[in-house]
Design a protein that fits this description.
Layout: E1 6-9, H1 15-26, E2 30-35, H2 38-50, E3 55-59, H3 65-79, E4 84-87, H4 102-130, E5 133-138, H5 151-171, E6 176-183, H6 189-202, H7 206-214, H8 226-237, E7 248-251
Parallel strand pairs: 1-2, 1-4, 2-3, 4-5, 5-6, 6-7
Helix pairs in contact: 1-8, 3-4, 4-5, 6-7
Bound molecules: nicotinamide-adenine-dinucleotide.
Length: 258
């Protein structure tokens, strides 16, 4: 499905980004993992290389225009092209609006909305020349419905769905598709840390937090696995999905169906 495709993934030292990289690699893709965390990135790349996969690591803080450009340039220098761009890097900050530091708000917007714009900007010329490209922006169900306390995350994820639609329109006649993935709760370090905070505050085990806080919100009563997200991302990156563009694809165990 993605054999020989060159994929560049931001925020790929761990969690969903790493899992996507691993899945692409297992399916014959050439993988560029990038992340702000050099140590985590080195470990992640070593793990793929030790298993014989064609992978490189490029340190890249997505808030830096120069580093994003360099990341894409190095990808093309090394592998000759860039077929798939996955704008995945993300962070979370939860606070009521009147206590939300403006600099935090701006940082989250920069990482999860401005950075996908910048990366798209730099990847588009290569993809247009190739007459082929797949861009996948990691949004969230937070891009579709509101969640109290998540002003910045929610705004960024809503915004990146808008960016996805515009990029899809501009890429359409050049063989480029652009889609947003909207996962619900996925079993990752980001979500585990949030659950751990609730568990510590309430003095109850993490499993109880899942049963009492998360499962009542999710009709399937489970966290999604990173493998499910990675599989769907690979489908969107494949030739089979060439007619799918400008969409917000939802994988949420039924959360937003309610
Ligand atoms: P994670 O915290 O496990 O991984 C995020 C990665 O992004 C980390 O490796 C981190 O170092 C990197 N990163 C942070 N700031 C960066 C920066 N400035 N430049 C480059 N890299 C940076 O998170 P995750 O759960 O794997 O989430 C990945 C994406 O999926 C995020 O965009 C998140 O919003 C989205 N998402 C996650 C869930 C979930 O349930 N985990 C649900 C919906 C959407």
């Amino acid at each position: 499905m993605v054999n020989e495709k060159v994929v560049f993934i931001t925020g790929a030292a761990r969690g969903i980004g790493f899992e996507i990289g691993e899945h692409f690699a297992m399916n014959g893709a050439k993988v560029v993992l990038s992340d702000i965390n050099q140590e985590g990135l080195d470990e992640a790349v070593d793990e793929l290389k030790d298993r014989g996969f064609d992978a490189i690591g490029i340190k890249c803080d997505v808030t830096s225009e120069e580093e994003v450009k360099a990341g894409i340039d190095k990808t093309v220098e090394h592998f000759g092209r860039i077929d798939v761009l996955i704008n995945n890097a993300g962070i979370q900050h939860v606070a009521p609006i009147e206590e939300f530091p403006i600099e935090k708000f701006e940082l989250l917007i920069k990482i999860m909305l401005t950075a996908p714009f910048i990366a798209t900007n730099f990847a588009f010329p290569h993809m247009k020349k190739q007459k082929f490209g797949r861009i996948i922006n990691m949004a969230s169900i937070n891009g579709l419905i509101g969640f109290a306390g998540k002003a910045a995350y929610n705004s960024a994820k809503h915004g990146v769905i808008g960016l996805t639609k515009v990029s899809a329109l501009e890429g359409a006649e050049h063989g480029i598709t652009v889609n947003a993935m909207c996962p619900g709760y996925v079993d990752t370090p980001l979500v585990r840390n949030q659950l751990q905070d609730i568990s510590s505050t309430r003095g109850v085990p993490l499993e109880k937090v899942l049963e009492e806080v998360i499962y009542p919100l999710v009709p399937q009563k489970r966290l999604l696995s990173v493998e499910e997200i990675a599989d769907y991302t690979m489908f969107l990156a494949s030739d089979k999905a060439k007619g799918v563009t400008g969409q917000a694809v939802v994988l949420d165990g039924g959360y937003t169906a309610q």
